[in-house]
């Protein structure tokens, strides 16, 4: 991208608008074209300034950020990065925003400073390269099958990043209550993963929890790697269990998709790996290891990925057996993990 990324900053706090603007202006690839104190000002500024990316506060006067985001995604879809408080309510609203179509989110720091918004710079750059579509343009995922039996020893691992909240909701909503034993690594701040697991548990048929040390893998249970503090691995044995490893970031991430995939390969069991939307290349090498070991692999296609980075890296490495649009992944995954041993992909 040769031209600067044009950003509109929307926040009801004058101080916060100044800090966010200063942080973004410190990067030569970004231009803050304007600020707005509420959605009414923001709507006028969007029409006048035509920004590439919007940073949006969750709680604002006249119309909260969630309501405004819904209007944006319906009337003028564009990349939005949410700026959230660290409260439980703020986290829940931010997750709802990511479901609606916000590309990513950052948490407001406890102590406000320009340096505290360093992560926002990279998220804005990623958002500028993302593919944002109106929700009405996205096909619905297939319904969960009424009768399904997963292979007893089969393990499913899914990796995702930017755009992954919406993608995971779409995929997992097509899973039956007795889905394959599943582990997930989604790049997400530590403050969000517990709430996201709880959200998935409420809307999906299987039991979804944040992974914890020693959690036993079994059909009907899905474990989401906790954000920030550790990598999610699996320990070998008759019954594999979750193991949280507090080691350095891999590919710039902790938890890392590659670490999760590679631990699955070491188990030498029937396995399926899936790579979804996300920036970068985390998961590509691990998915290739799964395929090389005889496991099955799927990747989200470019047309439905918010950011076709991780799936592209895996595909170009030869790690992806087949790419599919998001709405077709659930039935394909279930078929590969089924007790019937069917191996054709819908």
UniProtKB/TrEMBL annotation:
CDD domains: CheB_Rec (cd16432), REC_CheB-like (cd17541). It is an enzyme of class 3 (hydrolase). The keyword Transmembrane helix does not apply. GO terms for molecular function: phosphorelay response regulator activity; protein-glutamate methylesterase activity; protein-glutamine glutaminase activity. GO terms for biological process: chemotaxis. Phosphorylated by CheA. Phosphorylation of the N-terminal regulatory domain activates the methylesterase activity. Belongs to the CheB family. This is Protein-glutamate methylesterase/protein-glutamine glutaminase.
């Amino acid at each position: 991208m040769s031209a600067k990324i044009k950003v509109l900053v929307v926040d009801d706090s004058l101080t916060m608008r100044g800090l966010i603007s200063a942080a973004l202006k410190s990067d030569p690839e970004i231009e803050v074209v304007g600020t707005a104190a509420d959605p009414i000002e923001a709507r006028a500024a969007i029409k006048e300034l035509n920004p590439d990316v919007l940073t949006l506060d969750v709680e604002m006067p006249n119309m909260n950020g969630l309501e405004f985001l819904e209007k944006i995604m319906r009337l003028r879809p564009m990349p939005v990065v949410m700026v959230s408080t660290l409260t439980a309510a703020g986290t829940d609203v931010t997750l709802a925003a990511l479901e609606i179509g916000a590309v990513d989110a950052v948490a407001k720091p406890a102590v406000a400073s320009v340096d505290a918004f360093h992560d926002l710079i990279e998220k804005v750059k990623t958002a500028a390269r993302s593919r944002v579509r109106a929700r009405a343009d996205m096909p619905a995922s297939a319904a969960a099958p009424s009768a399904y039996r997963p292979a007893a020893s089969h393990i499913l691992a899914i990796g995702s990043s930017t755009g992954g909240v919406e993608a995971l909701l779409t995929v997992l909503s097509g899973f039956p209550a007795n889905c394959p034993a599943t582990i997930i690594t989604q790049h997400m701040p530590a403050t969000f993963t517990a709430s996201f697991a709880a959200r998935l548990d409420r809307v999906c048929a299987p039991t979804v929890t944040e992974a914890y040390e020693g959690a036993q893998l079994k059909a009907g249970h899905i474990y989401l790697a906790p954000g920030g503090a550790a990598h999610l691995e699996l320990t070998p044995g008759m019954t594999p269990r979750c193991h949280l490893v507090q080691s350095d970031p891999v590919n710039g991430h902790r938890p890392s998709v590659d670490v999760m995939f590679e631990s699955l390969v070491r188990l030498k069991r029937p396995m399926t790996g899936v790579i979804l939307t996300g920036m970068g290349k985390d998961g590509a090498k691990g998915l290739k290891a799964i395929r090389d070991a005889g496991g099955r692999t799927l990747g989200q296609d470019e047309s439905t990925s918010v950011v076709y980075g991780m799936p592209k890296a895996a595909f170009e490495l030869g790690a992806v057996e087949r790419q599919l649009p998001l709405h077709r992944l659930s039935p394909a995954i279930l078929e590969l993990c089924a007790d019937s041993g069917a191996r054709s992909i819908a």
